[in-house]
Amino acid sequence: MKPAELGHPVTSDLETKTVRRAALFEALRFNGAPRIMGIINATDDSFYEGSRVMETEAVQRALAMWDAGATWVDVGGESTRPGAMPIPPEVEASRVVPVIEALRNARPLALISVDTRRPEVARLALEAGADMVNDVSGLRDPAMVELVLSEGCAVCIMHMQGDPGTMQRDPTYGDCVREVSEELAAMRERLIQRGHPEGLVVLDPGIGFGKTQTHNLELLSAGKSIAPEETTPILWGVSRKSIVGHLTGQQEAKNRLAGTLGLAAVAHRLSVDLVRVHDVEAHADLFKALAPFTKSQRHPEG
Q: Is 276 a catalytic residue?
């Protein structure tokens, strides 16, 4: 069974809401290794130049990622790198919706996330076939909260202090791990109290989003402990970021694959549930190589 086509079992019945939800729950959890989420940047200005693709190339790259071992592909149309300026929602939607539609047509059972902080873009993406909303703003927009609740979709809540244009000017915390953990837990609880399935809520500490390198290392060292419950899925997004450059001395994103894989090995050791990466095949190979040396680590069903 291909990683991108998880389920109980994988048949046409997967398209029913109940069975597909069970498949989503499974696909958000560590299962001997972190699940791999491949990054599709349908942009012209994302921080890693090698990740920038537009519609036709984006579709082909996503299909290749699934074939290489990705469980998810995450499609985004707005750069949220430090210093990035917002783009009109209609421009963002024009970049991501055709890609998601094409991917859903090509792989009806595969798992797709949309990387957006705008509810109007998220709604169109869900209608086009996305299974999850990955919101770097942590559901700050009340309309995004309402959309997630009404759709009952999977959601990744990321922590960000400030916004992309200003977040790295002077990020300040009293206790970074505690504050990030509490903010993420509060939004998760808000969804659950209103009936959202807790198994479909993923938390992301937001490495590089309003954090110094010291903050980043504190959050990574905390691992799964930032989650309010042991079964709450955690996602790390560190691929080729400045934290890797900080640790390795590599100033250019194109030279940070080895360091990224080092942090992925840490994610594996800490049972982090998902890793969002540019280089799917390399991560899949890493996790295969680690498998014989790793005791069975599967989270209990929750």
A: yes
Task: Choose between 160 and 27: higher pLDDT.
Answer: 27
Separation of alpha carbons 131 and 122, rounded Å:
10
Nearest alpha-carbon partner for 153 in 4, 298, 27: 27
Burial of 120 (0-12, 13-18, 19+ CB in 10 A): middle
How do residues 19-59 score in pLDDT, each as one tens digit? 888 899 999 999 999 999 999 998 764 444 554 566 688 99
Res 65: pLDDT = 97
Catalytic residue among 117, 188, 241, 256: 241
The span from the CA of 254 to the CA of 283, in Å, is: 16
| Longest Cα separation, the chain | 51
Would you kindly state where each structural domain of the chain is located, as residue ranges?
16-79+90-284
Candidates 61, 117, 224, 276; catalytic one: 276
Q: When comparing pLDDT for 16 and 289, which is higher? A: 289
The answer on pLDDT for 275 being more than 60 is: yes
**CATH classification of 16-79+90-284, choosing from 3.30.460.10, 3.20.20.150, 3.20.20.20, 3.30.2170.10?**
3.20.20.20
Question: Could you tell me if 200 and 24 are in contact, meaning their C-beta atoms sit under 8 angstroms apart?
Answer: yes
CA angle 83, 119, 106 (to 5 degrees): 95
Catalytic (active site) residue 17: no
Q: What counts of helices (H) and strands (E) characterise the chain?
A: 10, 8
